[in-house]
Write a sequence for this structure.
């Protein structure tokens, strides 16, 4: 009797991959827009003058938005995402 095959990546017991996303303390946002300009992937926008993650899917999670916020309102946090075929978790 052989050992069970553990090579399958389709194991339903595997948790989803974690990827960082910006979490913004909008209560203190001044609406300066620096984080929006810093995001080259067009993920962020201002809604009623508050920075908002409008398009999370293209976010690479590297945190350029967090680095430029003069108020220190953006932190990067892990979030479960579904990987696309051929995509690997960072
Ligand atoms: S982490 Fe990078 S890609 Fe994601 S929202 Fe911030 S600047 Fe944009
Ligand atoms: S950089 Fe900071 S203060 Fe400026 S819009 Fe973005 S979250 Fe708000």
């Amino acid at each position: 009797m052989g050992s069970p095959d553990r090579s399958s990546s389709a194991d339903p017991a595997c948790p989803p991959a974690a990827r960082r996303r910006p979490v913004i303390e909008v209560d203190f946002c001044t609406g300066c827009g620096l984080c929006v300009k810093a995001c080259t992937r067009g993920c962020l926008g201002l809604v009623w003058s508050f920075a908002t993650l409008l398009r999370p899917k293209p976010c690479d999670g590297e945190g350029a938005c967090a680095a430029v916020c003069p108020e220190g309102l953006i932190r990067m946090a892990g979030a479960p995402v579904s990987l696309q075929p051929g995509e690997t978790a960072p």
In short: Strands lie at 18-24, 44-47, 50-53, 74-80.
